[in-house]
Amino acid sequence: MTLLDKDGVRLTVDDTVATVTLNNPAKRNAQSPALWRALAEAGKLVPGTVRIVVLRAEGKSFSAGLDRQAFTPEGFDGEPSFLDMARGSDSELDATIAGYQEAFTWWRRNDVVSIAAVQGHAVGAGFQLALACDLRVCADDAQFAMRETSLGLVPDLTGTHPLVGLVGYARALEICATGRFVHAEEAERTGLANLVVPAAELDGAVRDLAAALLAANRDALVETKALLRGAVHRTYEEQRAAERAAQARRLRDLAGLTD
Question: pLDDT per residue over 161-174, tens digit each?
Answer without folding.
Answer: 999 999 999 999 99
